[in-house]
Amino acid sequence: MSYFLVMMKVTQSLKKKLVQIREISGIDYKKI
Questions:
Q1: Would you tell me which of 2, 6, 14, 25 could form a disulfide with 29, CB atoms 3.0–4.6 Å apart?
Q2: Residue 18 is part of which domain span?
């Protein structure tokens, strides 16, 4: 169970980082 919880936290943090990257790069991110 603990491993699953860790994976959940990692996934959530990665999603947050992706959102931040999208907000910063904006349209340029879609071109990549």
A1: 25
A2: 2-31
